[in-house]
Amino acid sequence: MGRAKTLPRRLGLYIAALVISVYSAFPIYWMVVSSLREPTELLTNVSLIPNVLSLESYRNLLELTDYPRHFMNSVIVAVVAVLVTMVFSVMIAYAVTRQRIRGKKVIVGAMLYAYMFPPLLIAIPIFTIFARLGLSDTLTGLIASHLTLTLPLGVWFLWGFFKSMPFELEEAAMVDGCTRLGAFLRVVLPLALPGLITVAIFSFLLSWTDYTFALVMIGSDANKTLPVGLASMVGSFDLRWGEIMAGSTLIALPLFAAFALMSQYFIQGLGAGAVKG
Amino acid sequence: MSSKATIYGFLFVGLAVTLALIVAPAVYAVSLSFYQMDSFVGAPKWVGFANYVAVLQAPEFWRALLNGAIYALGSIVFQVILGIGFALVLNEAFPGRNLVRGLSILPYLLPTVVVILTFKWMVDGGIGIVTKAVEAMGLPPINWFESPGAAMASTILVSVWMWTPFVTTCFLAALQTVPQSLYEAARVDGTTAVQRFFHITLPMLKPILTVVVLLRAIWMFNKFDVIWLLTRGGPVGATENLAILSYRHAFNLFDIGGGAAIATISFALLSVAVLIYFWVFPLEDD
Lengths: 277, 286
Known about the structure:
A: mainly alpha; MetI-like fold; 2 domains; B: mainly alpha; 12 helices
């Protein structure tokens, strides 16, 4: 729509863009800045730009708290959840798009439905089952509960992806003597890579940021993941905001890095409604 | 291995996993709501509909239902209004547009915990930047969490900040599909920008608006983490919704059957919304 814009109109546009930027980014900027201030300065100085940068809050966080351990737990849970999600969602999505299976609408519909379940509808029974198996307070239980979010997302997204992929590709490979499995592994999977990357990113995001399931499934300090570990620090730590903001920055950092590197996958996934929340 | 065997093998493995992880727990949750259980490993005792009767007779259930509705409605209205506004701005051409688009998505990527902690730090009573700014403007201090109304407003404010980017992104994608010729024609007819918004843009955005409102309604109605981290449902239950009530029953009061009954009721309410969704947007085959 942009031709011959009048000056007031253009000025209004710039102001609106500035307001959106400040509104969206200022809290994030403030989190990072607060984590980099001298802890003593933090309590007295609210200047927008700190006088001196200091890593003391990070040092305290990493040396005096369980943060590094929680970080490792989060990495393990997220990586396993992502891998399992990719394997199973690609199998289901491929099967329902490539074969006339009765009730396939039911399968896909159920997946979308499951994606909208109330969290406690899943958290209460999974916790009960794992408690009865003697597996309460384990990372395994937490991974299982994360799969209830990531698997429906993966199937739903890849279903859309495979639908738009022509059948002729595998058929040609199979005419050339490939088996169905061979055609799937050598032809379909490489072409589905962009879809798989999107699924991996969003599964990681869901698992890495989850608070609700981790709160329910994990009891001991040693098994906590980052979101629950950081939240519990607020109570026990006598509100040391520098360390808490340092911890928040470190949780957000991998997500921002991934966003900066792979923003086109993010936009694509967001457009498909990929993130529950 | 034949072609069919591979496909059915895939399907079998995939469905077995889904059944074990999603269908079985959901069914189990519903069945738990008919039992009395005082511990997670104790023997369940069949009580029929007693849990439902107890839950529905408690005034806190109805309060939680109302709170959940207020919270969901309030946050959706502001998300949609801001989201449309942001999308309209970000759809215009100006230098640095991609940067602003990127910045506008950032809140959506942050873990809830990070957002809540940063918000609490910014409004901290003694030294938070917002507190200081309010002080510098000579205004009386804001009590963000102390009165019921303020606590509800705070949870809505934080939720709107977090999920507006979802709405913005959806509308931005939709705006790009509106044919420019419609605007040209309307401009020739001498319409104002406001008229063009209400007569062209908004009708063209209606389908995506329905999806966005339905999805947001489903997710906001079930929200647990924002409210729990911000207010724990307080003060005195003023921000407690069904998810918080269900959690408190199962994990604080060890009334596991009652917690499961509340989760099942939310599930039933949500199913109505999901049915509407499938009715408006039937699944397209192939």
